Q: What sequence folds into this?
């Protein structure tokens, strides 16, 4: 499921190449999405990366016909030229667009619905 040894994913992930704007305070980095789940996002790492690792990020994803997703996350790891973020909360206005985007890219729609159900409990 993952290209990184030792990773234990709890949610279905989809590899999707989309633009992501990563914001923290007054800083903005323009990156590319590598993969996404209801609880996590991986992006490429920009050449200049001077973020505060213990502070929250806002990730703005242009999901095309599904609109703009705005997710709040914390950085979990930096490795092999990529950044891994844990999504802390998906608000109600982002759940349906996220579901629609992921449903086109995951192989198991039942697993995706179970993932969405887990969101309601967190």
A:
């Amino acid at each position: 499921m993952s290209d990184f040894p030792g990773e234990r994913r709890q949610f279905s992930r989809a590899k999707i190449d989309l633009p992501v704007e990563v914001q923290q305070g007054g800083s903005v980095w323009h990156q590319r999405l590598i993969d996404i789940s209801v609880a996590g996002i991986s992006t490429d790492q920009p050449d200049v990366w001077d973020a505060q690792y213990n502070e929250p990020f806002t990730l703005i994803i242009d999901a095309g016909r599904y609109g703009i997703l705005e997710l709040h996350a914390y950085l979990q790891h930096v490795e092999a030229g990529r950044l891994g973020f844990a999504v802390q909360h998906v608000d109600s206005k982002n759940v349906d667009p996220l579901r629609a985007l992921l449903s086109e890219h995951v192989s198991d729609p039942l697993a995706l619905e179970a993932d969405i159900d887990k969101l309601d409990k967190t």
